Amino acid sequence: MSAFNPDSAASLAGPAWLTQRRSDAAAQVAALEWPSADDEVWRYSPIGDYKLDTFAPTTRSGVGPTDPAWLDGSGPSVVVRLANGMVQSIEQRGTANSGLTVARGVETDSAPTDPTAELTGDLVLALAQGFSADPIVITVAPGAVIEGPVVILHHLDGSATDSDAVVAVPTLVQLAVGADAEVSVIEQRTSSAGATLAVPAAVIEV
User: Fold this and answer.
1) In whole angstroms, what is the distance from residue 116 CA to residue 93 CA?
2) Do the beta carbons of residue 182 and residue 107 sit within 8 Å?
3) Are 104 and 135 in contact (CB under 8 A)?
4) What is the percent of the chain where pLDDT is above 70?
5) What is the CA radius of gyration of the chain?
């Protein structure tokens, strides 16, 4: 997965805090060993069947998700739709929830969580932190109780790449919840028939 390098992370747009977060995470990705079937945690996975060096990130948006049948019944407070890891829409539903903010990280001026916090050394987390092109920031004020879940709909379509390369779609949801606050988050992932093989590096960071 040589395409996941500090230069690739630095090419992604965003404010200073996000650029620094990506830089720190990309440096850690470069230092970590990639998984193999020899690792106990990956032993029973198909990781040995993949040519990891063919994996590459994508920043190409595409056709967004179709709303699932259960969506309206869940009474969502906010619906976020992404195509190939890129935000297409953030829709407020019903009465606005005081104390809840849902925004794109690339449009957020200050870090929602401590940008100096140590990275854990987890590869999936580092990939999401370093290479998510369009992270989502959910902020809940102290004491706020949010009625209805924040629903995040991810979709991968066939336009993610022009080649047969395996696409990795790192997505990061940064959730900053104040003291005594309550919020629910529901994520759904779908793909189009015949879509390029993709590996999500999906993380909710609290």
Assistant:
1) 34
2) no
3) yes
4) 80
5) 17
CA distance 90 to 150: 10
Contact 59, 12 (CB under 8 A): yes
By the 8 A CB rule, do 130 and 1 touch? no
Q: Which residues contact 117 (CB under 8 A, 6 or more apart)?
A: none
pLDDT in tens, 141-162: 999 999 899 999 988 876 555 4
Spacing of C-alpha 189 from chain mean position: 11
Q: How far is residue 137's CA from residue 114's CA, in Å, rounded to a whole number?
A: 13
Strands 86-92 and 78-83: antiparallel
Is residue 85 within 8 Å of 62, Cβ to Cβ? no
CA torsion sign for 50, 7, 124, 136 is: negative
Return the number of other C-beta atoms located less than 10 Å from residue 44's C-beta: 8
pTM of the model: 0.83
Strand stretches in 29-143, DSSP E: 55-57, 78-83, 86-92, 100-104, 136-140
Helices 16-31 and 123-131: crossing angle in degrees, nearest 10, is 140
Alpha helix (H) residue ranges in 32-146: 123-131
